[in-house]
Specification:
Elements: H1 3-10, H2 21-40, H3 54-67, H4 74-85, H5 88-110, H6 112-121, H7 129-144, H8 147-165, H9 169-186, H10 191-200, H11 204-230, H12 245-259, H13 264-282, H14 287-299, H15 302-321, H16 323-334, H17 338-356, H18 359-376, H19 381-398, H20 403-412, H21 416-419, H22 424-438
Helix pairs in contact: 2-3, 3-15, 4-15, 5-10, 5-13, 5-14, 5-15, 6-7, 6-12, 7-8, 7-9, 7-11, 7-12, 8-9, 8-20, 9-11, 9-19, 9-20, 10-18, 10-19, 11-19, 11-22, 12-13, 15-18, 17-18, 17-19, 18-19, 19-22
Length: about 450
Amino acid sequence: MSSEENDNRAGRKKPNPKALIPILVFLILYLGTGIYFEYIHPQKGQMGFYIMSVVVAFGLALIVAFLQNPSLSFDEKIHICAKGIGDDNITIMLFIFLMAGAFSGIAQEAGGVESTANMLLNIIPGRFAIPGLFVIACLISMAMGTSVGTITVLVPIAASVASTAGFNLPLCVGTVVGGSMFGDNLSFISDTTIAATKTQGVAMKDKFRANIRIALPAALITLGILFGIALTGGPAKLGDYPFNIGLAIPYFAVLIMALLGTNVFVVLGVGIILFLMMGGLCGSLTFASAFTSMGTGTSGMFETMIVTILVASISALMEEYGGFEAILGFIRKFSHTRRGGMLGIAFLTALMDIATANNTVAIVVAAPIAKTVSEEYQIPPKKTASLLDTVSCIFQGIIPYGAQLLIAAKLSGVASVSIIPWLFYPLLLLIFVLLSIVFDGKFTKAKDLSDK
């Protein structure tokens, strides 16, 4: 049976590599301007990869997508975009982004993250400050759902630990960054988890179970390494950090509910109510400041939501034009096993993160293609969601021009590239991801490939 006949029998689109041009346009615009303004002509006080708005770059890519395939009318293309945007999982994802923004805004205004971090800092012994910082970063980022927020709070403390205990400063900063990426990857309320699970149509608890089997061994080995390093240095003077246990309660409640598999809307709703109550009781929130901060938080999610809408539109058009089938054809050419499909998803996600320097955007771009690959290669959706989230967080945590390392470098006064050798957790996580692929689905053939 010929390849074309098999495609027709399976109801596939005809492969068309030209349909992928919109993504190429986006990469040239966003990656090109990022490299130029970060390394060739840097702008004072600005991060090069954030000068070109990701919304503008995707908007221009969407225009290119509309200019392609003249056999379809403008109204037909609008209808294709509308179906992509109107997907149930996309709609749920947008609503969760809004609630996550409101939660993040009120938590920050109430001072919840500082109280939680300070409470934990007062518990750990000075001798084990470095492994303690790693554990705290893991817990805080899981509760907050953001690696950047965790890094902003803990890196100045890491710098203090380095100076008082005589440790290498990039080591202490890298420890915080690694722990922050652990939580970003596993948190039920992080942008990456929301994007990975909703685009693949899986429950967050199922993705968490798939993730923890990879992330926990890497974290435990990292912790062992850090304990070994801690024993070679002196004790750090952590001091007494003020905290209010009432403001830490909402974070721990959110973390426990999430781990129990509670619906994410319930988790975020309860978290917002708890911060309203505890912030009012502790005097850190007023009626006005609470609702203003929730509005600010939701506004902060608008760019992510617009990107989701634009990418859903571009992806729908690329799929209609045969772009996804072209990618599948490339993967089929090199592998006929589920393992090959998973490597393809991992490589695509890594490439998107390296190009966009934003792990949430990388997932949103790679997810539609990953879902098609997942169906073709019989990869469980929870595994696909896990790969999208984990691989994007790995590379986001190690690229020197990503927000995480740039902010960590700015706060600590070291070069972002000097932190990379001390990123034990992301590098170990990459090893465990590859091992999970090698030993998963080794002999499973992709459906329909045996007919070719």
